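Quick start: what a row looks like.
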Amino acid sequence: MSQYPLGVHEADLITSKTGKKLSEITIEEIKRGNVNADDIKISSEMLKKQGQVAKEADNPQMEANFERASELVNVPDEVILTMYNKLRPNRSTKKELVMMATELLEKYHAPHCAKLVLEAADIYEKRGILL
């Protein structure tokens, strides 16, 4: 069972997207130039661990959010911003959303995110808020 907050109880296990340990990310290391922007981005594994904490707390919605977030770690920021805009009502066709889901699944190996986009496409279609 994980103890929350992880940064207090499991700090030695926390690593960034680049594999840098939390203990290695200090003001001194930043000043020395040994920490860059990618070093402070969360890793997929840490997001999954947060999801496990949510599961143990009987919070399946939060667990699902962390699972989807863990899939997005390796998706470029520009792609995420484009997806965000396309998921707004009246901004996309159903075909565009299906293509987005396909890209998430095939290019970024993000099945939970792809499923969410397909669900949104169906709901948008039913509500009449697609282009």
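That is the whole record. The chain is about 55% helix and 0% strand. The two ends are 47 Å apart (CA to CA).
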